Amino acid sequence: MMRIDTGLAFLFPGQGSQSVGMLSGLAAAYPEVASTFGVASEVLGYDLWDLVRHGPEERLNPTLQTQPAMLAAGVAVWRVWCRMSPVRPGWFAGHSLGEYTALVCAGALTFEDGLRLVAERARLMQEAVAAEAGSMAAILGLSATKVADLCRRASTATEIAAAANFNAPDQVVIAGHRAAVGRTAELARTEGAKRAVFLPISVPSHCPLMQPAAERLAARLADTPIGPPSLGRVVHNVDVAQHTAPEAIRDALCRQLYSPVRWTESIGFLAEQGVDRFVECGPGRILTGLNKRIVPQCRTEALFDPASLAKGLELVQ
Asked: Per residue in 63-83, pLDDT tens?
């Protein structure tokens, strides 16, 4: 019999966690993986599972392919979990793109509609900024307040940099025009940052440059059926809040495109609600690593292959 565990939260990674061959071990043991990607391939009109299995990286890594691939991967792992355990989390959250996966798994959005949305989201994001005009960089070792100040100092009337992801107390990702991001990175190094490195991402997400994309995405969201989550509660990136009204969910997804991902606050909020165990549901361990710095007192397991599935299931024994 299904049981809700209010001390358990499922987290869904976003762009950057993908890799060629991801979930291959899980797929060999559980048919849910291939069947989930089969549905995705039908919706998208190309063989997404073949792309994930064989690549090459230069075809998988562009945002147009990565966003649907990561959504399908998260849903596939979730379906394996649902087969293996009657326990369901009381809470869901997803980093950036992962928020769409969270909404699908929480029952607010169908998988097929989620795929169509993220495919459109990726296209609009790609079109919003000219190729090579934008970039993102990770700043490690400085406070969020300090990084935001450096962004203001490096921006001009025509070139902006802004804090895009508040990932951990000592890790902030910035985004904007390539030159302004570069100036901010240089300032960060002079101010004592441990690292300030450009990321291999062509689209400057979660900054004002994405506002035109958000305005166009609003039209697609308006035509997409969205309901309140039927399983657990979803914490949104943009305001660290839970929404049940469809219009509020749509608004949060629109604002998310050009607003910072408040990940540190989101994880802190979940811990304050009594969550003491987290499952990163999807390929990679990025969110697990961040959690170790945000809530070291909590246990987090990344779930992406049979061995990690077994560890994840131990959390609910």
From this structure: 999 999 999 999 999 999 999
